[in-house]
Design brief:
This protein is of the alpha/beta class. It has two domains: 2-136, Cobalamin-binding domain (Rossmann fold, 3-Layer(aba) Sandwich); 159-449, pyruvate-formate lyase- activating enzyme, CATH 3.80.30.20. It has a six-stranded parallel sheet, with helices on both faces. Strands 7-10-11-12-13-14 form a six-stranded parallel sheet. The chain has helices at 29-35, 72-84, 94-98, 100-103, 118-127, 179-182, 194-202, 220-230, 249-257, 272-276, 288-296, 317-327, 345-352, 378-392, 395-403, 408-422, 425-433, 441-449, and strands at 2-7, 43-48, 62-66, 88-92, 109-112, 134-136, 163-164, 167-169, 189-191, 208-211, 236-241, 260-268, 301-308, 332-337. The N and C termini lie far apart (53 Å). The model has no long low-confidence stretch (mean pLDDT 91). Helix 8 (220-230) packs parallel to helix 9.
């Protein structure tokens, strides 16, 4: 059987010869995981449109497409082409799970929710010629997963080929997050066994790892075992966690000793009341600076995430958020406009209130306003969002933020890391087009190496 796995390009990355490096960070591990369920005699290929062109000149037996909201239109185009060519098309992913009836207009079958249990059932039925239209995830476990087909990943096209996922979901519930819809009808957070995770890490070459888990600290017992087992592996790694989880000093010390050097933290807002309206009860604004100090004092850099457009936000939120982020020495920041994804609590609420402006999924990219805000216009929010990025990454603010560090090495590392990330897009574009992003891995490892305080 010939199988083609496809990750269609997101809106911003489509049709551009010079793309931001963020679209070439990580390989499509989800598709490589599904490929692990194929039989030994099957032929498989993974095409990621963010790093290579998709040639529409074949007709595989099976085409599997992973769709996100801003790649939905492109995903449907590809699905329609292959169905006309005689291929069987199956689709899955966050967007498909949110709007299965829409996806079924273009696919022969859809897999809803995490696919580890539903996908092999689909494969078995497909081989026997009796595939159903819809497959729902039922059993939630990561036990007995086959080996991920990393041999199908073109590593030289990615800055972080050693990405890894050792859990699914998140223990928290925010109404603007896809999680509750994607993991409905079952466990919404579960992990590998520690031994399973350590074995996968041990098989990866190179020092640098990036955990793509929503919250690598989400299960304290698992995280403690994982970090303890990684000590002595000489790894350096990045990941994501919540504000509250890094206040567990003992667990954070274990993480740093195992190689933690950079962490994505979803601060989201400086307005406690605004976050409570969206179910982000685990974020406590009064703990933010304590969490920042806990990380920085241990030599861990922070990539902070902020969301603009909560109902309580006013026109001053953009500048005040950036000023706070710079003053607290955050190395990088990711800004978003609140986007009510279909199937989420906030989408359902805004729909009932008549506040959803349209369903042009290409614009549901966290860079455009797609709902009616309580007090601000679309133009005000979008202009403020753009200004926040420009202001945070101004050279003078990069210098101010770096200067806030106590240790000279941390000042230098902050300046180099932040500057390279946002100020040298033409250089990144050249490296991406040369298909040699692996050239940047040794310098990245050197910057991250740092000194554990």
């Amino acid at each position: 059987m010939r199988v083609k796995f496809i990750l269609p390009a997101l809106t911003e990355a489509r049709g551009r010869s010079w793309r931001p490096v963020k679209y070439s960070l990580f390989p499509p591990l989800g598709l490589a995981t599904l490929a692990g369920y194929l039989d030994a005699g099957d032929e498989a290929v993974i095409i990621d449109e963010h790093v290579e062109p998709l040639e529409l000149n074949d007709a595989p037996d099976l085409v599997a497409i992973e769709a996100y909201i801003t790649s939905a239109g492109r995903s449907y185009e590809i699905a329609d082409f292959y169905r006309k060519a005689g291929s069987y098309v199956v689709m899955g992913g966050l967007h498909v799970t949110s709007v299965p009836d829409e996806a079924l207009l273009h696919a022969d079958s859809v897999v809803l929710g995490p696919a580890e249990e539903a996908w092999p059932r689909f494969l078995s039925d497909f081989r026997e010629g009796r595939a159903s239209r819809v497959y729902h995830s039922s059993e939630r476990t990561l036990a007995g997963l086959p080996e991920i087909r990393r041999d199908l990943i073109k590593k030289r096209n990615y800055l972080v080929p050693n990405s890894i996922v050792v859990s699914r979901g998140c223990p928290h519930s925010c109404d603007f997050c896809y999680k509750d819809n994607f993991f409905r009808d079952g466990k919404s957070f579960y992990t590998y066994t520690v031994d399973q995770a350590l074995a996968e890490i041990g098989a990866l070459k190179g020092r640098h790892l990036f955990f793509l888990d929503d919250n690598i600290f989400g299960d304290r017992r698992f995280a403690s075992g994982l970090f303890s087992g990684m000590r002595g592996m000489r790894r350096i790694w990045q990941g994501a966690a919540t504000v509250g989880s890094v206040l567990d000093g003992d667990l954070l010390d274990l993480a740093v000793a195992s190689g933690l050097r950079s962490l994505f933290i979803g601060f989201e807002s400086l307005d406690q009341a605004g976050m409570l309206l969206h179910g982000k009860n685990h974020n406590r604004v009064e703990e933010y600076q304590k969490a920042i100090k806990a990380l920085h004092s241990r030599g861990v850099m922070i990539n902070a995430s902020f969301v603009f457009g909560l109902d309580s936000d006013t026109a001053g939120v953009f500048d005040s958020t950036v000023d706070w982020a710079v003053a607290n020495g955050l190395e990088t920041a990711t800004f978003h406009i609140l986007t009510p994804y279909p199937g989420t609590g906030v989408f359902n609420r805004y729909s009932a209130e008549g506040r959803i402006l349209h369903r042009d999924w290409d614009l549901y990219d966290t860079r455009h306003v797609v709902f009616r805000h309580a007090s601000m216009s679309r133009e005000t929010i979008e202009a403020g969002y753009r200004r926040a990025y420009e202001k945070f990454y101004m050279w003078k603010n990069i210098c101010r933020s770096a200067a806030s560090k106590d240790v000279l090495f941390d000042k230098i590392r902050h300046f180099v890391y932040t500057g390279c990330w946002k100020k040298f897009d033409p250089a990144w574009g050249l490296i991406i087009n040369m298909k040699r992003l692996n050239m940047a891995i040794p310098p990245l490892e050197h910057i991250l190496e740092g000194k554990a305080h």
